[in-house]
Design goal:
This protein is 21% helix and 18% strand. By secondary structure, it is an alpha/beta fold. Strands 1, 2, 3, 5, 7, 9, 11, 13, 15, 16, 17 and 31 form a 12-stranded mixed β-sheet that branches.
């Protein structure tokens, strides 16, 4: 008689079936067991957060184990304000029973103190973000043990001391951000071992000395921000061999010139910010090969007078024609605490009908702007001219300030454009005698009649533009009734009758009458017949902002009286139905072209002053 064995079923010896059943039970139990965080890493994480006085969010630690909840699901913690600090874990280890911490984010939580020693135990970290805190002390050398690291940012802290050479052991690193710290010394040559690196942010970090030659091995680099340090020596020629570069920022250092011609190989470059070059004259011919370039910035160059002169004279005299596009320049002034002086080259060929909404006035087109916006635009133009005339390292007279050369960006920030007629102005001279060039309706009398050029010619033109901005129309409009055709004469008539506010754009339902009167008064002061009666732009700014009152006696200029006595208004102001015509030695009609002309190649060249 045979004995049947139960349990797992089947036949055989009892011992065999006991073993088999044990295996099955163990496998089933293992399959049901939830993975847990490596205990060493869990202890390290708790110690780190404890030292920094931070607590994990409730959505992270739902089971008492760090690697749970949002740490293991598909939640994006990079863009979450509620999951901070945050971690991500990989629970695929040891048959899915062990989780390792692969990502730690402690972003902008005002944590204070050194980088904790316990961080050394998070050896599986691939992504570490400690940006924008108050971390102090040096970066510990154990950073080199975190060899799984791919994305590391310690930016915007107060870290100090030399950068440890052990960074060179993180050979899987793709992005490194250590900008805005207080490091000292040179960059370690070992950083050249990071051949997978695509992004390197070392701006405003305190580094000095030459750029390491080993960086020539970083062939995968796409972004390099090295601005506002104290790098010295020549700008490395090998940078031209890093052909994957898309953005390069080197302004604010102490490099020796010139800019390497090898930069012509950087055909993927979309942004180049470079400047503060000491000694040496740089050619910009390499730009012609950079077909992807959107913005070229030359910032507050500590350069020779020769290079500074060439930078402004070349565009003015058409010596950049190798690009094959017409030259269009714009200055942007943004009041952000740090003064920014931008010259943008806008190139291309879209028709003006597609672009007129971007300029202040264009023929009969204009933007329907409220009063606060108009006032800010007037202030913005005044700020830009103040910089050109009084604050720039070289004094510049624009010579063609007019409404159609005031462009508005998407934030309605005004940009003074088209520097094709700009002149460098020697401050040792009282004036420049030159051929007349500019636009009818905006030319100062002394310049239009005698070729006597000073920055007060720009002040005059500013007054015209300010008046146009208040009135919401060009200075000449033949479609209006006779007394309103010429904005100047109409404004003076109203001013003398103490009705100056009458020129305010009728489309404005609400406006600050005090501000409007102040702008009108400033505009009339800026357009006085004698240049000596016109205030400098810094005083214009002070009047507009209410820091000082207008104390000068404003009287109708004699040139307006002379026009009226002649019975015609065509001796100075154009008789066309738009704002004016451009002159260039000979007077010629204004081309109906908006200066903002985007290009498939360069859309910006900037001189950015600190």
């Amino acid at each position: 008689m045979r004995r049947r064995f139960g349990g797992c079923g089947g036949h055989g010896r009892q011992l065999v079936w006991v073993v088999v059943c044990s295996w099955v039970a163990a496998a089933r139990a293992q399959a049901q067991q939830a993975p847990t965080t490596d205990p060493v890493e869990m202890a390290a994480l708790n110690a780190i957060l404890g030292r920094w006085g931070t607590k994990p969010p409730t959505t992270w630690n739902i089971t008492g184990d760090p690697c749970s909840g949002t740490a293991v699901d598909g939640t994006d913690i990079d863009n979450s304000q509620t999951i901070n600090p945050g971690i991500k874990c990989d629970c695929s280890y040891n048959s899915r029973t062990v989780c390792h911490i692969t990502k730690l984010r402690v972003y902008s939580l005002d944590v204070v103190g050194p980088i904790p020693a316990e961080l050394e135990n998070l050896t599986y970290l691939a992504n570490l973000n400690l940006q924008q805190n108050y971390l102090t002390g040096s970066v510990p050398s154990f950073i080199g043990k975190l060899t799984a690291m791919q994305y590391l940012t310690l930016a915007i802290n107060s870290l100090s001391g030399p950068l440890p050479k052990e960074f060179g052991k993180l050979t899987d690193l793709r992005s490194l951000g250590i900008g805005s710290n207080n490091f000292t010394g040179e960059l370690p040559e070992e950083l050249g071992n990071l051949t997978k690196l695509e992004q390197l942010y070392i701006d405003s970090s305190g580094f000095s000395g030459p750029f390491p030659s080993t960086f020539s091995k970083l062939k995968n680099l796409k972004t390099l921000w090295g601005s506002d340090n104290d790098f010295t020596g020549e700008i490395p020629d090998y940078l031209g061999s890093l052909t994957k570069l898309e953005e390069l920022r080197f302004q604010g250092n102490s490099f020796q010139g010139p800019i390497p011609a090898s930069f012509s190989n950087l055909t993927n470059l979309t942004g180049l910010r470079i400047g503060d070059i000491v000694n040496g004259s740089s050619s910009l011919t390499f730009i012609s090969n950079l077909t992807s370039l959107n913005v070229l910035i030359l910032r507050n160059c500590k350069i020779s007078d020769n290079l500074g002169t060439r930078f402004f004279i070349q565009p003015t005299h058409g010596k950049l024609s190798f690009m094959g596009y017409p030259e269009q320049f714009a200055i942007t002034w943004k009041s952000t605490g740090r003064r920014v002086f931008d010259i943008y080259v806008q190139l291309g060929g879209r028709r003006d009908a597609d672009r007129c909404s971007l300029c202040l006035f264009f023929l009969k087109h204009s933007l329907n702007l409220d009063w606060p916006t108009r006032f800010e635009i007037i202030l913005g133009i005044a700020r830009g001219l103040t910089y050109l005339h009084e604050e720039s390292s070289v004094r510049i007279v624009h010579r063609d300030i007019k409404a159609s050369n005031v462009l508005l960006d998407t934030d309605l920030t005004p940009k003074i454009s088209d520097f094709g007629l700009a002149k460098l102005y020697d401050e040792k001279k009282t004036h420049i005698s030159t051929k007349i060039a500019g636009t009818f309706g905006y030319l100062a009398p002394e310049y239009a009649m005698r070729g006597h050029l000073t920055e007060k010619a720009d002040v005059f033109a500013f007054g015209v533009v300010a008046l146009e901005t208040v009135a919401g129309r060009s200075n000449t409009d033949n479609s209006l009734e006779n007394e309103k055709i010429y904005l100047f004469e109409w404004a003076w008539g109203l001013y003398e009758r103490e009705q100056a506010i009458g020129i305010v754009d009728p489309k404005l339902d609400e406006f600050d009458s005090e501000e409007a009167f102040r702008v009108i008064s400033v505009a009339l002061l800026c357009t006085q017949g004698s240049p000596h009666q016109r205030p400098p732009m810094s005083r214009v700014m002070a009047i507009l902002t209410g820091d000082i009152e207008i104390t000068e006696v404003v009287t109708k200029p004699s040139y307006i009286t002379e026009w009226q006595l002649r019975g015609g208004n065509t001796s100075y102001v154009t008789s066309t139905n738009y704002s004016g015509s451009t002159t260039g030695g000979e007077l010629r009609e204004q081309r109906e072209i908006d200066p903002l002309t985007p290009s498939p190649t360069i859309t910006g060249v900037t001189y950015d002053g600190r």
